[in-house]
Amino acid sequence: MNAQVYYRRWRPGRFEDLVGQEPVARTLKQAIARNRIAHAYLFCGPRGTGKTSTARILAKAANCLSPQDGEPCNRCRLCLAVNEGRALDLVEIDAASNRGIDEVRSIREKVHYAPAEGRYKVYVLDEAHMLTDAAADALLKTLEEPPAHIIFILATTDPQKLAPTIVSRCQRYDFRRLEVEAMAGMLARICQSEGIQADPLALRAISRSADGSMRDAESLLEQAATSFGSPLTQEQVRLLLGLADDERVRVLVGQMLQAQVPEALATLSAIASEGLSLRQLHRQMVDEVRDLLLVKAGARQMASQPEEVTKEQTQLLQATSMERLLYTLRQLGQVTFRPEAPPTLALELAVIEAAQGKAASQAAPAVAAPSPTAARRPAVESRSAARPAVPPPSTHQERPAPIQGQSTPPPAGPRPPAPPGAEPPTAASDGATPEERLRARWGEIVRSLERRKGRRYYLGPLLKDCKQYRLEDGTLFLEFAHQSHMERIQEEMDTPEGRRQFMDTITKAVGLPSPPKLELIAPTTSQRMDKGSRSPLVQAALSMGGRIIDETEEKDDDE
Predict the structure, then answer these.
(1) What CA dihedral angle connects 106, 112, 117 and 120, to 10 degrees?
(2) Residue 63 domain flag
(3) Residue 20: HSE in the Cβ half-sphere, 13 Å Cα cutoff
(4) Using the 8-state DSSP alphabet, how is residue 92 labeled?
């Protein structure tokens, strides 16, 4: 007979054995001890945090023949039946594969039968959010008023997908992601019982890779023990998980923060050449910068690094500003690994972007602030310096200032369209207000979005239909001539990609500190009637005595 894997062998058997879920365990123990058992429970939380194990403990404690302060005794025949997986009064259902209305009808028919051995019959629905809408509706009445001998326990990793009517009928318990120290302590106890000598740093590395899941941590420990035996070292765990050495990651992050681009790229290339997981390396870099940020902010106790490591980082933090750390963390947070790109490209771009941000922030204070009387002088001088030495001809006439809500007239001569993927226009320090920049740069904004496609439509052609635009109190108002174009822009603004492209372009072109709010204005009835009355077909009909009763705008079918 095959031996049980670690996560099954070391499954918690009592509430006090639950790792990192003390509030949940304490509340359920009190409910059992005071005989205040609810008819329905909802256990929510990430995978591997003990939801199903807690459901089994609750089922044992509710039926235990000799409970002890709310804990199951684990010695009576009913507790042993649950531990051995042969309890008739514990029914576990995988709602991911039994999600239809027929399965729920079967439950509704069976709940009326009395328990076989204990006082309660316990139904555990794992991944309850996978139930279909019809199945959830069929379960509502039974879940609200089940027979007195029935306990429902719903476990889910995604409670947002559950209907509010289901949630409102249950007592909800949220299981939190486990901390690194708590998991490392549990792994140390497992190693002691299994006769494995393990380096505490190796157990910490396993716990950090498990991402808050005790089940994943136990599986990784068993895999490492099977591969390398005892003693288990940190280097062996890194080799198994594809992790880079913490010191090398610390060096790489330090080179990024100090704008040492060649050195940082060389370190990154050396790590990648060893065949280590670049996704794991990215995660290690994020964790390292986060720890630096926490130490810089005075929250040293929240950092996941040992105390001696955070002390070594003091010298680096003295030469690094909080803004620099935030900028680097944002750059790392935008890393996306794409299969069609070279493996290291995403991290190389993040390294270079972070280093350039450092250089720019260091160079910025060297520029002296202009005096109030000469606030607009640098921009004027720069424009005049770009002009040729020969004076313009006397016949030159300056273009009139644009009227509010109208686009700036284009310059004389044809202007080439923006190429695909063109960068959006950037606001210059010309002393103009955001409203003035919007009017002056609207044509450039539209051209830069001509080849930017959202989920279904190109943004630039739709914006050409915008006849009125203004920026007031952080809100951008756009009025369209056609209802269909406004609806399509609204559809693209409802998608993250389309809204990001449009808002990034507007923010950069106008020079706003943050994206504005957006208000779309539909064309008025009079505008639509005026447009329709100018049509030759409508004019011909009117000349023959016809009259306009109602107008329905024709939509282009270009989807």
Answers:
(1) 100
(2) yes
(3) 23
(4) E
Number of separate domains in the chain:
4
Paired with 122 in beta bridges are 90, 151
Q: How many residues does the chain have?
A: 559
Strands (E), 418-496: 466-472, 475-480
| 475-480 and 466-472 beta bridge pairing | antiparallel
User: What pLDDT, in 10s, does the model give residues 60-95?
Assistant: 999 999 998 899 999 999 999 999 989 999 999 999
Tens digit of pLDDT for each residue in 90-145? 999 999 888 888 999 999 999 999 999 899 999 999 999 999 989 999 999 899 89
Q: Are residues 204 and 226 in the same domain?
A: yes
User: Is 404 inside a domain boundary?
Assistant: no
Name 60's Cβ contacts closer than 8 Å, sequence gap at least 6: 13, 72, 74, 78, 79, 82, 83
Residues 154, 214, single domain; the answer is no
Q: Alpha-carbon distance 20 to 12, whole Å?
A: 12
- Give the C-alpha separation, 316 to 293, whole Å: 12
Q: Cα 219 to the chain's mean position, in Å?
A: 26
Measured distance CA(269)–CA(258) in Å, rounded: 18
Q: Is residue 253 part of a domain?
A: yes
Asked which of 174, 193, 227 is the last residue of a domain, the reply is 174
> Whose CA is closest to 521, among 472, 557, 559?
472
Q: Give the residue among 414, 286, 390, 294 at the shortest CA–CA distance from 347.
A: 286
332 and 204 in a common domain: no
User: Whole-angstrom Cα distance, residue 282 to residue 160?
Assistant: 29
Residue 295 structure tokens: 């130490």
The tokens of 166 are what? 């289901």
* Residue-number span of the structural domain to which 203 is assigned: 180-241
Tokens of 129: 């959010």
Report if residue 79 sits inside a domain: yes
Pairing state between β 150-156 and 40-44: parallel
pLDDT at 559: 41
Residues 6+ apart with CB under 8 A from 525: none
Amino acid identity, position 531:
K
C-beta neighbour count of 110 within 10 angstroms:
12
The backbone torsions φ and ψ at residue 252, rounded to the nearest 5 degrees and listed phi first, read -60, -45
Q: How many CB atoms sit inside 10 A of residue 398's CB?
A: 5
